[in-house]
Structures are given as C-alpha cells and as structure tokens.
C-alpha cells in the first residue's frame, strides 16, 4: 500500500520511533494525532509526554525527553490538532527540552515549528531538525474534473474527529487482506505520519483543493482502489470547504459515512447540531455527482467507543435495517464490518 505518486507525493523520511507530546490537552478529539499513531503505528511509539493539566492519554508510558531518547526515540511528535493548529507559548519549554535531549521535532500544525524563533534557535544550537508535515507540495494545479481510471473510496463524516481516518485505514487493510490492489491515501497530518506520504488538504489554498485531490489519487489500473482519508464535514460551519474540494477532486465511486452515535453538536462550534447521516448521504451524492455521476454510498461507519459491545451491536443492527445499508464499527470488526467491505466492493 501507499505507493508514492510521481511529482506529488514523495515518501517522508521521518525519524522514528516517536515520543508523543500531548501538551495540556483535555479534549480527546484534539489529540487525534497522538491517538492515531498509537493505534495504527504502535511500533513507532515509545511513550508519551504530557504537561500538567492534561487529561487525555494514549495509555503509553509517561517519559521525559531524556528518558524517551534513552529508549531509542529519535523525534518528539506534537500529537495535538487543536483549533487553529497553534503551538502555544507554554508548550515551548518542553519542546526545547526535547531538542536539548537530542530529539528532532515533528508537527503537523498550521503554525510551523520553523516560524517560532526560540525553537529555530534551539534547533540550530543543538543540531536538531524541525519537521513540519503540514506543508503541501509546490505547484498544485487547479482541478480539471477529468474522470480518472481506477476505483476510489472516500470517507466522509457528520463531523470532525470521529473516525474518517480510522475507517479509511481499516477499509484499506481489509481490501488488502482480500487480495485487492489498494492504496491508503492520506490527507491529514496523522495519516501522513502513518503512511509516510500524502497531501495535507487543510493546508492547501481553497482554489487548489480539487487539484490536490486529483494528484492524490491519479489514474490507476481499473481494478485498483484508492481509499482516501476524508476531512472535515460537508455541513461543518468551519471546515466544509476542505470537504467539498476533496469530494470533487477525489471523484469517489463509493463513500462511507462516518458518525459517532450520541454526539449532538459539531466539534468546536457549540450550538450547531450534527446533520443526520441520511442528510449527509443526500448532500454527498448531490455534490459528488458533479464530478462522478455514478457515486454511491457503501454504508456507514459508527464510532461506538462510548458503548458496550452488546449495546453497540444492537444499535448498528437497528440502524442498518433502518438505513438499508451495512452499519459497522471498523475497530470492532466482525461480520458487520465484513458486510460493509462487501458493500463497498459490490
């Protein structure tokens, strides 16, 4: 999987393994980079570093920068994706300590490490690297809308940070196990760190979003599948732009709607209720058919991490019957997830 794309997606040479920095994060959704790396690339993670006040943890051993370096860590990864992608001043002493301990710094924030003078000075002083992952390739073209060969699957969602990346990774691995020629195409900082390549779609200028998505999933063999990590939500008041550009440019043949039962308001925008999964299907087909008239919904991926196994199974079975398509939790797997995979391939 994850074949690099000519002139667009060279594989990243990131120093590994990592120690995961969680700052003083109290909202699990904002720690999705750290949690994603722990869940999907555990062999690359030696521990975590949290500041006082943090309530989110990956469950990995708490380490100081010096302890992490002694365990073989080569870089500290900022595992937080907060609102605005900022690196606040009160984090910086810990980041400088990591540089002094011999670790490089890796971040996928909108605020670039290299633009923070004290970090740039410390990196030069200690001979370490500052690696900003959220940097799109140069000279991205405007999207053309040209239909490309090969098959594409895009994960979309009712909100941010509820499982689009996890679902795409799980589906790509499931297709690979079935002998399908498949690539996972990363569109966000965590996916890029896991896959070693991709395009950070939320760092692309809006006029070039569709063109970036076209680069991300180029022409391929007719039986090849690109499973594309979704971003944002088409109805999110803050992040709909990246979702629409990705939808038009990726031209998905199939999409899977990701949803977290029990979530009622959109992340970071109190007062905006979640759109129903049915409405997301309607909107995705209406807008996505502009560049692929054959677009269809393959089913639904529910994040049931807050539910017990029996309650989750009952809910997903009931919703599957109501919606007329498979509903599964990709992390729980099982027959429901097998049905979702089969529906996507049908």
TrEMBL record:
D-glutamate N-acetyltransferase-like C-terminal domain residues: 142-335
Entry superkingdom: Bacteria
Domain D-glutamate N-acetyltransferase-like N-terminal, residue spans: 59-136
InterPro entries, alphabetized: DgcN-like, DgcN-like_C, DgcN-like_N, P-loop_NTPase
Name of the featured protein: DUF1611 domain-containing protein
